[in-house]
Automatic annotation (TrEMBL):
Gene3D superfamilies associated with the record: Carboxypeptidase-like, regulatory domain (2.60.40.1120), TonB-dependent receptor, beta-barrel domain (2.40.170.20), TonB-dependent receptor, plug domain (2.170.130.10)
Any Pfam family the entry gives: CarbopepD_reg_2
PANTHER family membership: PLUG DOMAIN-CONTAINING PROTEIN, TONB-DEPENDENT RECEPTOR-LIKE BETA-BARREL DOMAIN-CONTAINING PROTEIN
The protein, known as: TonB-dependent receptor domain-containing protein
Stated family: Belongs to the TonB-dependent receptor family.
Domain TonB-dependent receptor plug residue range list: 130-233
UniProt subcellular location: Cell outer membrane
InterPro entries for the chain: Beta-barrel_TonB, Beta-barrel_TonB_sf, CarboxyPept-like_regulatory, Plug_dom, Plug_dom_sf
Listed SUPFAM superfamilies: Carboxypeptidase regulatory domain-like, Porins
Major subcellular location class: membrane
UniProt keywords, alphabetically: Cell outer membrane, Membrane, Receptor, TonB box
Record has Membrane as a keyword: yes
Length: 912
């Protein structure tokens, strides 16, 4: 009977159903034509509503015939009403809604893209209109990704791989197989100094990702950009003042799988002397054992991770002339790893020999702090002032438990148990004052005054070493080390543009930077009694004496250095029809000086290098259609050696039993020059759909690599940075994003080949007395295959966003070996991460609340390094080596293995 009633009422309603219609359409920006993803459309006075999809389209189904007012709505855009009439004769309508930004007048003065500056649409637009080859990651993409710091975000960009810390967290970026020395880092377009104690490149794990408006990776330099980047330029554009008053924030917590399985090893930070005895009491002070308290190590349950941020932005005054943005981020994490590494030597047959096995557990409490302030003030329609202030800080309290086993033929191996405490604080502060001025109808000017400071402080690195023997356990001699460095920049930039008419623009400008760098290294040697430990569980029971009570200042990391860069450029930009041509010449003059802590009587205690560089570039863009570009670029670039590499340090007093050569600096090291070519085809489809296909070639003169070199007038051989002829690097890149309704697939792949020839040592064998022979190999850090694949689900109507992200990094040399064919190869890696977020409140409400989860390293991908890994020239070898722990393959020698396990994070995000 129920089926009969259902059929009857269905027949009665059939005429009404047939009269129902469908309203379809597309919502775009009235000025740019870009789809406005997330906009809401509704029929006024009814319950019919819908949300704009990724391609800008919307659909309202089963709408009865009648007269309606269709409303289009999006935050920071003006409401748009459009009359719609549905009749029985014409039940379906297709419309086009073009919304106008509420701040059109302001955008004419600032830059296009004030609307939704953090969205995917803006990121694609920046890539499309950029004068050179750029990849952009939006804040929106960062927010929904599995990543919380900038280095990990970069691994999603085509051609970018990471070097990771001992905690498994990304730290340095390698772009297109070019080592981190060939990149530089910008904040809001301004170069920043590095807190790294040895190098120029910036550790990118210091940056919380939630402070960014977008992340840009530029792979082809224009004349207005500084020239010391052959791989790429990483620019972090920080959040800017929004068009409307906004308060956003988040709070999250999580845990690492590693600490479900073991305890956290920690130490008392209060026992760490932040200043050395010499700094506290004067350089003539005779240190006593009481000046060196020992940290107490304890095992405890790891605290949950805690993450939070808060951002406030608004505009004030008449015509909203003043923009204010204040943002802060805190990320407290407990990270760690389990693993081992071997010290190696070599036999007379040039086979690797394993000497000492170090089995390690790292436990690190990591606290990342970021503060960002931006102010902009429009004096009038022709003049704007801006101030940017950024402060970043990364604290790491790292405890390491280690067991060392040294193998000596068939004799009983030596075994040591070591506990190390290491406290490190790195910081970067940047303040930039800028102005933009329209001086005449044709002439405009922009300028920047910059002060930046990077610091690194590692106080009282302490190691407790207990040797385990059959005759009783004994404490060993140890070092207590204080290390700190400061890098300070003062810079001024000026750029002028003159409109010559007919689509032709002349640009000239320059910069001056004064860099000061100070490195300090102080080591005290504590001598143990040599007697059996009274209480091996308490190092305070050991009687130590201070061997060098004034410390050792003359180490390989004590110097002051200055670098003065003066640069100027001229460029012409022509826009004519579908063509855009940008070309010009940049000139950079470098003045580097250093003074070491060596005695002034030694000629090597100070040094200086002066060199000019002329860097031409040419960039062509042809718009095949409004959504397609064809690009070609040529640019010349350089790479300056680090100050540490130039200082004439050496520790050539002795060669260790494991046959590892000492290191030395090279005051005669030349800077690297490169010629670079790029081609790329670009297609920007509806919504986020995208295709980029390109190729690149680099010819590198005087690349810097480490090799074995005999010191002049001696028989001592050291491991030293040197210039090696010419290297090449070339490859192919693919980027593809395609959505099928709410489902999307994002892929990128980079194929890279490089080669360089450097000298290697080879032990003498019968009939072959060679000590140094050339070896052709790939560049350090270059992987032949690099790829990303992400499965995406985006449903604006449900407020649901999910992604499963896969990263593949092919095998690569992570350390150039000292012996022929015995480089250290990182095995290929596959990493899988997951993230999801769900809107908990209705779209368009004043208060928005979203829940999110992030999971990293689902596959527990290890970090593994081998000698003679796949792709190396010969098989590994000796039976003695293969019999040692962790050696399960005959064709390679495993020297490093670290596991990190998965990290879980969940939280809430709000918006007012």
């Amino acid at each position: 009977m129920g089926h009969i009633y259902t059929t009857f009422f269905g027949l009665l309603l059939l005429p009404l159903t047939l009269r129902a219609g469908t309203i379809r359409g597309r919502v775009t920006d009235a000025r740019t034509g870009e789809p406005l993803v997330g906009a809401v459309v509704y029929l006024q006075g009814t319950n019919y509503n819908g949300q704009v999809q990724l391609d800008g389209t919307f659909t309202l189904r089963n709408v009865p015939a009648g007269e309606y007012e269709l409303v289009g709505q999006l935050v920071s855009y003006q409401l748009l009403n459009q009359h719609v009439s549905l009749t029985e004769a014409q039940p379906d309508q297709t419309l086009s809604l073009r919304l106008r930004d509420k701040n059109n007048a302001l955008e004419e003065v600032v830059v296009q893209g004030r609307r939704d500056p953090e969205g995917e649409t803006t990121a694609r637009r920046v890539e499309q209109v950029a004068p050179s080859i750029v990849n952009v990651v939006s804040a929106q993409a960062i927010q929904v990704s599995p990543d919380i710091q900038v280095a990990n975000v970069l691994q999603r960009v085509s051609g970018v791989t990471l070097e990771r810390s001992t905690n498994g967290d990304g730290r340095y970026a390698i772009v297109r197989g070019m080592d981190k020395r060939y990149n530089y880092t910008l904040v809001n377009g301004i170069k920043i100094p590095s807190p790294d104690p040895y190098n120029r490149y910036v550790p990118l794990d210091i940056f919380p990702a939630d402070l960014l408006q977008r992340l840009e990776v530029t792979k082809a330099l224009t004349p207005s950009m500084e020239g010391d980047a052959t791989g790429g330029v990483i620019n972090m554009v920080m959040k800017d003042a929004p068009a409307e008053r906004t308060l956003t924030g988040q709070l999250g917590t999580g845990y690492g799988q590693l600490f479900f399985d073991r305890s956290l090893l920690s130490f008392d930070r209060g026992a760490i002397n932040r200043e050395s005895p010499a700094v506290r009491n004067g350089s003539d002070y005779q240190a006593k054992t009481s000046d060196f308290p020992w940290a107490t190590f304890t095992h405890k349950t790891a605290l949950p991770n805690l993450l939070g941020n808060l951002t406030f932005g608004s505009r004030y005054g008449k015509n909203q002339r003043l923009g204010v943005l204040l943002a802060g981020s805190y990320q407290g994490q407990t990270r760690g790893s389990n693993g081992y590494f071997y010290e190696t030597g070599i036999t007379q047959d040039n086979y690797p020999v394993l000497r000492t096995l170090h089995v390690q557990q790292y436990s690190t409490r990591q606290e990342r702090l970021g503060l960002n302030a931006k102010l902009d003030y429009r004096l009038n329609s022709r003049n704007t002032l801006r101030f940017y202030g950024v402060y970043l800080q990364l604290d790491e309290a790292q405890a390491r438990f280690e067991t060392d086993t040294t193998y000596k033929g068939n004799a009983r191996p030596d075994v040591d148990r070591r506990l190390r405490s290491r406290l490190q604080r790195q910081g970067i502060a940047n303040g930039t004052l800028q102005g933009e001025h329209q001086l005449t109808d044709r002439l405009s000017a922009s300028w920047s005054l910059v002060y930046s400071r990077a610091t690194n402080n590692v106080p009282d690195v302490t190691e407790q070493d207990l040797k385990l023997t059959s005759a009783g356990n004994r404490y060993q001699d140890v070092s207590r080390i204080w290390l700190d460095n400061t890098d300070q920049d003062k810079a001024a930039y000026l750029n002028l543009k003159y409109d010559l008419g007919e689509g032709l623009e002349l640009g000239v400008g320059g910069l001056y930077r004064d860099k000061d760098r100070t490195n300090r290294y102080l080591s005290y040697q504590l001598r143990a009694s040599g007697q059996t430990a009274v209480n091996e569980q308490d190092i305070n029971s050991e009687t130590y004496t201070v061997f060098n009570p004034q410390g050792i200042y003359v180490g390989n990391n004590n110097y002051t250095a200055t670098e003065k860069i003066a640069a100027g450029y001229g460029q012409l930009r022509l826009v004519r029809g579908a063509w855009e041509i940008l070309g010009g010449l940049r000139f950079e003059h470098t003045n580097q000086q250093y003074i070491t802590s060596l005695p002034t009587s030694e000629a090597a205690y100070k040094g200086r290098q002066l060199y000019p560089d002329y860097l031409p570039s040419l960039h062509l863009r042809y718009a095949l259609s409004p959504r397609q570009n064809l690009r070609a670029s040529y640019f010349s670039s350089i790479s300056r050696p680090s100050f540490f590499e130039l200082t004439p340090h050496n520790n050539a007093g002795s060669v260790s039993e494991s046959n590892v050569y000492p290191e030395a600096g090279n005051p005669y090291l030349l800077h690297t020059k490169a010629q670079n070519l790029d081609l790329r085809y670009e297609f920007f489809g509806a919504g986020n759909d995208q295709v980029m296909v390109g190729a690149f070639y680099k010819n590198i003169k005087n690349p810097i690599e480490y090799a074995l070199v005999a010191l002049p007038n001696t028989t001592v051989t050291v491991y030293q940075p040197n210039n090696f002829g010419t290297a090449t690097n070339y490859g192919f890149e693919w980027v593809g994003v395609k959505y099928f309704g709410p489902l999307g697939l994002a892929t990128n792949y980079t194929f890279t080949v490089s080669d360089i020839t450097t000298n290697k040592a080879r032990n003498a064998t019968a009939g072959d007395a060679s000590l140094s022979v050339p070896q052709k190999r790939s560049l350090q850090g270059q992987s032949k295959h690099v790829g990303n694949a992400s499965l995406l689900y985006k449903n604006p109507r449900l407020g649901l966003d999910m992604q499963l992200a896969y990263v593949y990094t092919g095998a690569r040399i992570v350390q150039v070996g000292q012996f022929l064919g015995l480089d250290y190869w990182q095995r290929a890696q596959s990493q899988l991460d997951f993230s999801a977020e769900k809107r908990l409140t209705k779209e368009g409400k004043r208060f928005g609340l979203t829940a999110y989860v992030k999971v990293q390293n689902l596959l527990n991908t290890p970090y593994q390094v081998d000698i003679l890994a796949a792709g190396a020239p010969a098989a590994a070898g000796s039976p003695a080596t293969s019999a040692l722990p962790y050696q399960d393959r005959a064709d390679r020698v495993s020297v490093v293995n670290q596991t990190f396990k998965a990290y879980y994070l969940a939280g809430l995000r709000f918006r007012l």
